[in-house]
User: What shape does this take?
Amino acid sequence: MNFLLKTPAFGEFANSHEFGKNGKMPSEEVRTAEQVAAWFARNGITVTSWARENGFDPKIVYALLSGRTRGRHGKSHAAAVALGMKSKADFTTNKEHLPLDQ
Assistant: This one.
């Protein structure tokens, strides 16, 4: 099965009034762990299968959903972005392009 989800993470939410018009959540909105867990339950997808299909360690995804980690750096941040729990970074990691305080 292919559980890769549309961008922004999950794209469409079938039969869900909590995510806005036509089941889509605006990309600017960030989902809570409870909303993500509810999406998994409604769609019959396990956290482990989603994590593996999307290249994440299931332990990281479970840690995000339980609140044990906030997804601030590295793989946990990437997983949080994929789940829609964090917005994408608005700058590159290239030092030449980082905003400078003046």
